[in-house]
C-alpha cells in the first residue's frame, strides 16, 4: 500500500492518491473530515487555520460508501488560494512585480536556503510553498483511511501531546479510549488536564515574545497482533518504517519507542519485557518498556512511540540571515506563521503511524477485499495465541 501527495501551500488544492487499499472498506467523507478538522485545530496556530476549512472531496476509488480496490484520490481545496491567485497562479506575471515579491531572505530552520540552492530557485517562495507543513493535511487524509481500515480490524490509534516547551504531562495510567477522549477535550491535545493551562501559557508567552516553541508528541496503537513487520530484512522492520514516517513530519527531530533513550542507562533486567502466557489471551508481556517492538516486529503489546518537534522556524522577531540576491546580512523573512504547532502535529503523527501499521497489515495478509483480510487476521491471531 502506498500513497503520494501533491500541492503547494497556497496553490489551488492538495491531492492524495492512495493505492492498495482493500475493496469493500466502508468509508465516508465525514469520517475523513473528522481527522482533518482535528489537525486544523490546536492552540498556538496562526491565522491561516481560520481561513481554511479542510473538507475532503473523494474523487475516485469509492462508490456507494465502499472502496473499490482501485486508487483512491482525495482532494482538499486551499481556500487561501483566492487571496494568492496573482502570486500562485500559473499565468506569467509582470517581471517587475515578480521581483518585488520574491522571497530572498531564507529563514534559519526552514527549507528555504537548502531548497533554493538545490533547485536553483531565485525566489524562495518556490521552495517554501511545498516544504510547508500544509502538506501534512494531505498525509492526514491518507492516514484517516488507514485509521478506518485499522478500526475495522479492532486496532485503535491515539495521538496526544506529552510536552510543550518545559511543561510535561504526567505519566498517567489510562486506557486508549480515555487518552482519545481527553486529547479531544483539550485545546492542546494533552491527556493531562492539570497541565492544560500551563501549556497554553507557555504558548502565549512565546507568541508574545515573537518566538516559537516545540514539544513531544506520543502515539499509542492498541489491539495489534504480534509479528507485524519482519526481522529478515532491514527495510521490513516496522519500527524502522514508523521511525522514518515520524521523522518525515515537518520539524520532527527525534523518535523513541517505549523507554527509548533512557535504555542507555537501564540494565537488561530493567529493560526487557518478561514473557507470560494465559489460556485466553495467549502470550503477553508483563511490562511494555520496549514500546511494543522486538526484532522489528510487534510483540502484541501496544506500540508506544514518541516524536520530538523543534520550535517553528518562522519567528516574528527573526534571526539573522543573508539576502540571496545582495548577499547582505538581513533579518530573515517573516511569513504568517504558527507560534506552536505541537497540538496539530500530534494529529499528524497519529495518522502517519496509523498509515505504517495499516500498510504492514495489508502487505502481510491477503487483502484484496475486507472480508478476506479480516478472515486471514482472525486465523493468524488464533494460531499465534496457541503457538508452540
Ligand atoms: C502542523 C505543522 C505546522 C507548522 N507550521 C509552521 C509555521 O506556521 N511556520 C513555520 O515556519 N514552520 C511551520 N512548521 C514547521 C516547518 O514546516 C518545518 O520546520 C520546515 O518544513 C523545515 O523542515 P524541518 O524542520 O523538518 O527541517 C510546521 C510544522 C507542522 C508539523
Ligand atoms: C497551512 C498550514 O500550516 C502552515 C505551515 C507553515 C509551514 O511553513 O510549515 C506555515 C504556515 O503557512 P501560512 O504562511 O500560509 O500561514 C502554516 O499555516 C496547515 O497546517 O494547513
Automatic annotation (TrEMBL):
<feature type="binding site">
    <location>
        <begin position="250"/>
        <end position="251"/>
    </location>
    <ligand>
        <name>FMN</name>
    </ligand>
</feature>
<dbReference type="Pfam" id="PF01264">
    <property type="entry name" value="Chorismate_synt"/>
</dbReference>
<dbReference type="InterPro" id="IPR035904">
    <property type="entry name" value="Chorismate_synth_AroC_sf"/>
</dbReference>
<feature type="binding site">
    <location>
        <position position="295"/>
    </location>
    <ligand>
        <name>FMN</name>
    </ligand>
</feature>
<keyword id="KW-0285">Flavoprotein</keyword>
<feature type="binding site">
    <location>
        <position position="45"/>
    </location>
    <ligand>
        <name>NADP(+)</name>
    </ligand>
</feature>
<protein>
    <recommendedName>
        <fullName>Chorismate synthase</fullName>
        <ecNumber>4.2.3.5</ecNumber>
    </recommendedName>
</protein>
<dbReference type="GO" id="GO:0004107">
    <property type="term" value="F:chorismate synthase activity"/>
</dbReference>
<comment type="subunit">
    <text>Homotetramer.</text>
</comment>
<comment type="similarity">
    <text>Belongs to the chorismate synthase family.</text>
</comment>
<dbReference type="InterPro" id="IPR000453">
    <property type="entry name" value="Chorismate_synth"/>
</dbReference>
<feature type="binding site">
    <location>
        <position position="336"/>
    </location>
    <ligand>
        <name>FMN</name>
    </ligand>
</feature>
<keyword id="KW-0274">FAD</keyword>
<keyword id="KW-0521">NADP</keyword>
<feature type="binding site">
    <location>
        <position position="39"/>
    </location>
    <ligand>
        <name>NADP(+)</name>
    </ligand>
</feature>
<feature type="binding site">
    <location>
        <begin position="310"/>
        <end position="314"/>
    </location>
    <ligand>
        <name>FMN</name>
    </ligand>
</feature>
<comment type="pathway">
    <text>Metabolic intermediate biosynthesis; chorismate biosynthesis; chorismate from D-erythrose 4-phosphate and phosphoenolpyruvate: step 7/7.</text>
</comment>
<keyword id="KW-0288">FMN</keyword>
<comment type="function">
    <text>This reaction introduces a second double bond into the aromatic ring system.</text>
</comment>
<feature type="binding site">
    <location>
        <begin position="130"/>
        <end position="132"/>
    </location>
    <ligand>
        <name>FMN</name>
    </ligand>
</feature>
<keyword id="KW-0057">Aromatic amino acid biosynthesis</keyword>
<dbReference type="InterPro" id="IPR020541">
    <property type="entry name" value="Chorismate_synthase_CS"/>
</dbReference>
<keyword id="KW-0456">Lyase</keyword>
<keyword id="KW-0028">Amino-acid biosynthesis</keyword>
Amino acid at each position: 500500500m502506498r500513497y503520494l501527495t501533491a500541492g503547494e501551500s497556497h496553490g489551488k488544492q492538495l491531492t492524495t492518491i492512495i493505492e492498495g487499499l482493500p475493496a469493500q472498506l466502508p468509508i465516508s467523507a465525514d469520517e475523513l473530515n473528522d481527522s482533518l478538522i482535528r489537525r486544523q485545530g490546536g492552540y498556538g496556530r496562526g491565522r491561516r487555520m481560520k481561513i481554511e476549512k479542510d473538507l475532503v472531496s473523494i474523487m475516485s476509488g469509492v462508490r456507494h460508501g465502499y472502496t473499490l480496490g482501485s486508487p483512491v484520490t482525495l482532494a482538499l481545496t486551499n481556500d487561501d488560494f483566492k487571496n494568492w491567485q496573482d502570486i500562485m497562479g500559473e499565468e506569467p506575471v509582470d517581471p517587475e512585480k515578480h521581483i518585488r515579491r520574491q522571497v530572498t531572505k531564507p529563514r534559519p530552520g526552514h527549507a528555504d536556503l537548502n531548497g533554493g540552492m538545490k533547485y536553483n530557485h531565485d525566489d524562495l517562495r518556490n521552495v517554501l510553498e511545498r516544504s510547508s507543513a500544509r502538506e501534512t493535511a494531505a498525509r492526514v487524509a491518507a492516514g484517516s483511511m488507514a485509521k478506518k481500515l485499522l478500526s475495522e480490524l479492532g486496532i485503535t490509534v491515539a495521538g496526544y501531546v506529552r510536552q510543550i516547551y518545559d511543561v510535561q504531562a504526567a505519566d498517567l495510567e489510562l486506557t486508549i479510549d480515555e487518552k482519545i477522549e481527553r486529547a479531544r477535550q483539550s485545546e492542546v491535545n494533552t491527556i493531562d488536564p492539570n497541565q492544560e493551562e500551563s501549556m497554553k501559557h507557555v504558548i502565549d508567552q512565546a507568541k508574545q515574545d515573537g518566538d516559537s516553541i516545540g514539544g513531544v508528541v506520543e502515539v499509542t496503537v492498541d489491539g495489534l497482533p504480534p509479528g507485524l513487520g519482519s526481522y529478515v530484512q532491514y527495510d521490513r522492520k516496522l519500527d524502522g518504517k514508523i521511525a522514518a514516517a515520524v521523522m518525515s513530519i515537518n520539524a520532527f527531530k527525534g523518535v523513541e519507542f517505549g523507554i527509548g533513550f533512557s535504555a542507555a542507562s537501564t540494565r537488561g533486567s530493567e529493560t526487557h519485557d518478561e514473557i507470560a502466557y494465559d489460556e485466553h489471551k495467549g502470550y503477553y508481556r508483563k511490562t511494555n518498556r520496549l514500546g511494543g517492538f522486538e526484532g522489528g516486529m510487534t510483540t502484541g503489546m501496544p506500540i508506544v512511540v514518541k516524536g520530538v518537534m523543534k520550535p517553528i522556524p518562522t519567528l516574528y522577531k527573526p534571526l539573522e540571515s543573508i539576502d540571496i540576491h545582495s548577499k547582505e546580512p538581513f533579518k530573515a523573512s517573516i511569513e504568517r506563521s504558527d507560534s506552536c504547532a505541537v497540538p496539530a502535529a500530534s494529529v499528524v503523527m497519529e495518522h502517519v503511524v496509523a498509515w505504517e501499521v495499516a500498510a504492514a497489515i495489508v502487505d502481510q495478509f491477503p487483502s484484496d477485499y475486507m472480508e478476506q483480510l479480516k478472515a486471514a487476521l482472525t486465523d493468524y491471531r488464533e494460531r499465534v495465541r496457541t503457538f508452540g
